[in-house]
C-alpha cells in the first residue's frame, strides 16, 4: 500500500505508475488529471483539443502546428482580443481560442481556417463575417 501525494488516499502499488523501478508519488487517476490539466494550459495541448473537436464535425487538413501558431500569436485573428487559456471564470470561455472556418461551407483547410476567440466564432456560427458586423452595428447604437 502507498499513500498518494495528491489525494492522500491509501492505494495498492498497482494504482501507481512506476518508471525505472521507482513508484511515482501520485496515483494513476491523480497523475492523469494533472497531465490533462497541464496539456490544456499549453498552446500545443489546446491546439490538439481543437483539432480533435473539429474532426468530429468535418474533414481536417489544417495542421496542429498551424493552429498552435495562431494560439501562440496570443489574440483573435479577427477581433484582436487576447486569448485566455487554461483559466475559468468571467470571460474565460468567451476569450478561449477557437478554430473558425472562414467559409463555413468548406472543410478545415490551411487556407480556410483561422484561430479566433470563442465568442466571435459563436456569433458567426454558420454565417459570415458580414453577418457578425451586421449584428455589431445593430448593437452599437444601443450602448
Written account of the structure:
- The chain is of the alpha+beta class and 143 residues long.
- The chain folds into 2 domains: 2-37, no CATH class; 43-142, Herpes Virus-1.
- It is built from 5 helices and 6 strands, in the order ββββαααββαα.
- The strands form 3 sheets. Strands 1-2 form a two-stranded antiparallel ribbon. Strands 3-4 form a two-stranded antiparallel ribbon.
- A hairpin with a 2-residue loop joins strand 3 and strand 4 (22-27).
- Helix 2 (43-55) packs across helix 3 (64-72).
CATH architecture of the largest domain: 2-Layer Sandwich
- The level of helicity is 25-40%
| Class computed from helices, strands and strand pairing | alpha+beta
User: Which residues form runs of ≥5 with pLDDT under 50?
Assistant: none
The biggest sheet amounts to: 2 strands, antiparallel
| Count of structural domains | 2
- The fraction of residues assigned to DSSP E strands is 15-25%
Number of helices: 5
Oligomer status: single chain
Radius of gyration: 20 Å
Q: Using DSSP, what is the number of strands?
A: 6
- Strand order, largest beta sheet: 1-2
Mean pLDDT: 92
The end-to-end distance, rounded to whole angstroms, is 62 Å
Summarize the structure.
Helix content is 37%, strand content 17%. The protein is of the alpha+beta class.
Amino acid at each position: 500500500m502507498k499513500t498518494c501525494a495528491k489525494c492522500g488516499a491509501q492505494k495498492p502499488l498497482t494504482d501507481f505508475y512506476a518508471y525505472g523501478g521507482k513508484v511515482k508519488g501520485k496515483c494513476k487517476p491523480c497523475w492523469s488529471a494533472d497531465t490533462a490539466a497541464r496539456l490544456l494550459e499549453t498552446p500545443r495541448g489546446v491546439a490538439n483539443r481543437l483539432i480533435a473537436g473539429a474532426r468530429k464535425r468535418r474533414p481536417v487538413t489544417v495542421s496542429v502546428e498551424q493552429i498552435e501558431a495562431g494560439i501562440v500569436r496570443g489574440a483573435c485573428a479577427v477581433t484582436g482580443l487576447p486569448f485566455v487559456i487554461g483559466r475559468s471564470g468571467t470571460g474565460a470561455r468567451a476569450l478561449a481560442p477557437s478554430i473558425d472556418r472562414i467559409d463555413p461551407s468548406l472543410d478545415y483547410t490551411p487556407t480556410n481556417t483561422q484561430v479566433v476567440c470563442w465568442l466571435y466564432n459563436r456569433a458567426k456560427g454558420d454565417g459570415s463575417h458580414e453577418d457578425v458586423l451586421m449584428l455589431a452595428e445593430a448593437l452599437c447604437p444601443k450602448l
